Amino acid sequence: MLRETIENFKKNEDKYFEICEHNIVQTNMSVQRKMSITLVGIYLVMLIFARMLLQGFRVHKTYYALFSLIVLFFVTNQFLKDKVVTMKLCRTESIIFYGLLYLSLISIDVMPYKDQPAGLFPFFLIMFSIIYIDRLKLYVIFELTLSVLFCVTCFYWKENFYSSRDVFSVISSLFVSAISTIILVNLRIKEALNAASLEEMGSKAAEAEANAIAANGAKTQFLSQMSHEIRTPINAILGMNELISREYDDPDLKKYSHGIKTAGNTLLALVNDVLAFSKIEAGKMELFNVDYDLADMITELVNMVDERAKNKGLKLNVIVNSQTPHLLYGDNVRLKQIILNILTNAIKYTEHGEVRFSVDFISGGHLDAQGIIGLKISVSDTGIGIRDEDMEKLFAPFERLEGSRNRNVEGSGLGMSIVQKFLQLMNSELHVKSEYGKGSTFSFVVNQKAKSWEPIGDFKVAYDKIIQDDGKYTELFTAPDAEILIVDDNDINLVVARNLLKDTHVNIDTASSGKEALVMSQEKKYDIMLIDHRMPEMDGMELLWRIRSEESNPNKDTPSIALTANAFAGARDVYQKSGFEDYLSKPIIGDVLERMLIKYLPEDKVNTDGKHEKVKRKPTKVVKNIPTSFGRSDNSEDIKDVREKYTDDKELYDAIGLLMHRANIE
């Protein structure tokens, strides 16, 4: 056990010197400098006072030798003050001078006073472990050597009585010194190792935190990039789909178009959930308030979930207080995402009965100086309900309630977590009432500013009007003299944008890269430029900066609109600070694009009179009966069959072909 203790002590001592060697050297040299100055001063004062006050006091030659040694000690330490001192040099210098000093103390204690007991050496023997830091074995060797030398000197020089007392005094001092040295050395080692351990733990914690922050940032960046990559083809598909629904009046096409729109919007909602969750985790989620029409938002929500409810045989009952103000100010995108998640969950977990979607408001009326109302949203269902013990899991990310029972229910498990986080941003919270086996009610109240107190009225009437107008397209303006440049690295996006503006008769040039657009901007003056943000080699921001920086560029001051598939809170401010006048989020909506152009095109080139409803074409179908191996017709259709029906309509045939190309369908 003693061997293990010694080995353990030696291991800790080695580690202590490995960690703290530089500090030990600095401490020793600093103590020695201060001590040498103090010794010189005290020694001089003592000699002067002794000569003046003590009658018969004589200065022995050993005093002069000791004083010379102290002065040399002082000079040496001052010389080494600004030098780089290694542990070896520090130890050598210290042992030499401390050894000489202690030898001088032995001489002073023994040689002048044969018939008097020693007083200085035993006292300073105890002090050595305090004034000098080194390994334990050095203390043992140093003090034992000096003690033996002192005892031998006393034995030969002093009278027996006094030499015996001095030997006993030194042995006692040596015993006290050994105990104090062991205690001090252990304390120094433990303190240093504990400090090093804490520093290492702090360093590891800081490194882990930095790695976690970096990993979280990388994850957020990855999800943002992936969401952009996923949104780009979805936006292209939805854009092409809008062109098809705008151009053609055919029952089959309407059915296909509606299916594409529903599936595309559902996929976009899922991508938005993942991206929103990553932004919430990174603390980068912000609200972006705008004016919005409540009836339009409710209609969009109903359209997004109505088909799913019908497919399950559920009744979607929408109840809207007719006195609710129709024009509100708030973050309608986040609010719509919250309600959509709740509605989607209600439909997913309800097999029979109905889902009730209620919209109401709480307000101080017209006397409310700030025009703030409490928009009250409630969604009730007759679904499976939630058990009391599962309530805590409801808002946990990636948690699925009753996983075995609901394993066939699609979803990411993020919906309710995102809902709660968004509501917290809006200073609200989600209230849940549920009875297992009978259904649940989810409700919340968010403050929104009423921009107009005109009531929404009968929502069914408003809904029918919106639906009736949804399939109709009327261009908002014509501008045959306007010149527009559209820049996007995605060919389908260029086709969509060009065809969305076809009936406005504007003159459109397109570029598929920033470099190409820069050359075109140098050669021709445009009335407005639509520039995609993310493009390889030269992105939209760099392109605009280069155009603005060229004094000779004719489009130096041309209004520019950023196109982005990743709209975010505060996007308008970011793009405006980068030089853009405004931005459009993808998928580009036809009437939104037209309103943006009306806002920024020269007034003398825009004609808003003579608007007319677009007459849709009836596509010519080529009906094909493909014989099967069993000698009968196979009536099942896929996208290839659908495309072949329209071989006589080149535009529609090519549009479906582009969709197939984007979906990698040969």
Task: Give a verbal description of the structure.
This protein is α/β, with parallel strands linked by helices and 666 residues long. α3 runs antiparallel to α4, α3 (87-110) runs parallel beside α5 and α6 crosses α12 (491-500). Mean pLDDT is 77; it is low at 403-409 and 623-636. It contains 18 helices and 12 strands. β11, α15 and β12 (582-585) form a beta-alpha-beta unit. The strands form 2 sheets. Strands 1, 2, 3, 4, 5, 6 and 7 form a 7-stranded mixed beta sheet that branches. The longest helix has 88 residues, at 160-247. It is elongated and about 130 Å long. It has 3 domains: 2-208, no CATH class; 233-255 and 475-662, Rossmann fold; 286-470, Histidine kinase-like ATPase, C-terminal domain (Heat Shock Protein 90).
Question: Briefly, what is this?
Answer:
The protein is of the alpha/beta class and 666 residues long. The protein has helices at 2-53, 61-79, 87-110, 120-131, 136-157, 160-247, 251-282, 294-311, 332-348, 415-425, 459-470, 491-500, 514-523, 540-549, 571-577, 590-600, 639-644, 650-662; strands spanning 290-293, 315-320, 325-330, 354-363, 372-381, 431-435, 439-455, 483-487, 507-511, 528-532, 560-564, 582-585. It has 18 helices and twelve strands.
Provide the β-strand percentage band: 5-15%
Query: How would you spell out the order of helices and strands?
Result: HHHHHHHEHEEHEEHEEHEHEHEHEHEHHH
Quickly give the CATH architecture of the largest domain.
Answer: 3-Layer(aba) Sandwich
Mean pLDDT across every amino acid position: 77
Range of helix content: 55-70%
CATH class of the largest domain: Alpha Beta
The name CATH uses for the topology of the largest domain is: Rossmann fold
CATH homologous superfamily of the largest domain - what is it?
Answer: Response regulator
Choose one word for the global shape: elongated
